[in-house]
User: Fold these one by one.
Assistant:
Number 1:
Amino acid sequence: MLLTGAGSGIGRATAVRLIAEGATVFGVDRDETGLAETGRIAAEPVAGGGGRWIAHRADLSGEEAAAGVAAAAVAELGRVDALLNVAGVLRVTPMESLRLDDYRDIFAVNLFAPVVLCREVLPHIPDGTGVIVNVTSTAATKAHPWMTGYAASKGALLSFSISLAAELAPRRIRVVPVSPGGVATPLTADKSTYAGIDTSWYARTYPLWGAPGRPEDIAGTIVFVASDDGAYLNGVEVRVDGGSHS
Ligand SMILES: NC(=O)c1ccc[n+]([C@@H]2O[C@H](COP(=O)([O-])OP(=O)(O)OC[C@H]3O[C@@H](n4cnc5c(N)ncnc54)[C@H](O)[C@@H]3O)[C@@H](O)[C@H]2O)c1
């Protein structure tokens, strides 16, 4: 399995869960220390690690870089049973101070990298059982003020996934966008990002526990969607948000 964003948060929790269930995980991230920590956690006896962990440090920004990651994964794995696009970046920017370069940076990671990985890995995904999971966000379809670039990138990834699912259906390769709501990870933890912004707007959107979800909650859904138990899930947004956007 090729998993991006494996060095932190949801990607790390997904890697640990997959390895515990016996999968071989080719984990990609630009953060080498984060990858090492994922490998360490996955190897702990309590994690149950029956699978195999292959760490691959790479920055996914740029077409060549993303294509290089796909080539490295194929060289290592041969067949790619599942492509799990989890890596992502968030920028919080009021419209007044927004720079178009912010959009370009966000789109490079959140949209273009998954698109290039899908294209490059596709010949190596098995017909009948292959699956692509693209991690989008509730921001794809629900208002997330001050995150317009992030929301637009996730909305585009959602649309891309729905159309690609129809395109790949004749090969019986599934494409499923998974949209988390707020999750406690480093992505959202940096409070300085929210300077000058009314964060109470976001605090109001956690009805279930009054707090964001855990990375493991999203990892469980990703693993389910990618497994045989998710065999009839295709081209539909799986929203995992604790009811925050019902
Ligand atoms: N945390 C949330 O509240 C939340 C909500 C909805 C969706 N998501 C999505 O879930 C996914 C995982 O986010 P997370 O919360 O675990 O964040 P995180 O910051 O903990 O993990 C993201 C990982 O992606 C990696 N990454 C970022 N840019 C990269 C690049 N150019 N090349 C290689 N690796 C790169 C980072 O190094 C990091 O390890 C993202 O796509 C995010 O948009 C998160």
Number 2:
Amino acid sequence: MWQTRVSELLTIKYPIIQGGLAYLAYAELAAAVSNSGGLGQITAMSLKNPDELKKEIRKVKQLTDKPFGVNFAIGQNGRPFEHFVEAALEEGVSIMSVTGGNPAGFFSMLAGTNVKKLVLVAAKRQAQKAEELGADAVMVVGQEGGGHLGKNDIGTMVLIPQVIDSVSVPVIASGGIGDGRGMMAAFSLGAEGIEMGTRFIATKECVHAHPLYKKALIDGTENDTVVIKRSLGAPARAISNSWTEKLIRLEKAGAGYEELKEYISGEANKKYIYEGEPDKGFAWAGQVMGIIRDEPSVDELFREMILEAENIRKKWAL
Ligand SMILES: Cc1cc2nc3c(=O)[nH]c(=O)nc-3n(C[C@H](O)[C@H](O)[C@H](O)COP(=O)(O)O)c2cc1C
């Protein structure tokens, strides 16, 4: 029933992908998503070095025998990614996703392997480029999403059909999806899979997220996010707080990267998401926080979403 080109490509039961989540997507979450029938991923560049990545990959393998992926945000902090990719290849990882820059160099490292290549993009042109370079599928994130976004503020509802009409590889919809309704909406648009980020943070197996971060996602509304880093040409959606207010004030006053870097650093991110200090840092989140009301286990989340989606399907069949 959930067979699409995406579930076939990745050999998963449900075409539901857990997006890369900087500093949050480690073995526990990735394995829980894969064990529930989706595709879990570890976020490689959050790890200190390639050896740590190897350890994390081995940990996932102990927790699940299902397929999982490794996500690479390239270009982030300008950190070289090549040794991390080598580590993933040495560990036999068969699915990798990439975002944040031109994937050509990344793909050339995978030439001659059977690794399935997913690219997270935020615009039609980027999706076409990813296909040209050899992506097996594209994940497309609309403006509602958490974390880094496209520059043109195009919402998922408009972006997905546009991309579907312009590439022939399967399209995975991302941005603003948090339940079975969102999933069915994405399939109605022609997507063959979905990716979620924010929704997975408010789950039991996202063990690294501080309870206050999860509470903010559960209690917050769709009005509680804000786009930061726009002045740097890298718009990204975070929970609105005193930290992001200060940052936006500086951006509006014309501050450059040097002045802003303390406000957007990994350290500032970790202050909020690990230490639960909302006034001393920031936390990425999408507008979907407006519909997150609980902290289920990943398996409970999957069961609820599939049930809801299948009920919609039945209703449509009448
Ligand atoms: C906390 C957080 C961290 C993220 N880090 C990454 C990352 O390292 N790599 C990546 O490809 N995407 C990253 N993303 C984007 C997500 O994978 C996904 O595309 C996005 O969250 C989808 O929108 P949603 O939050 O509405 O589900 C991040 C998103 C969030 C919320």
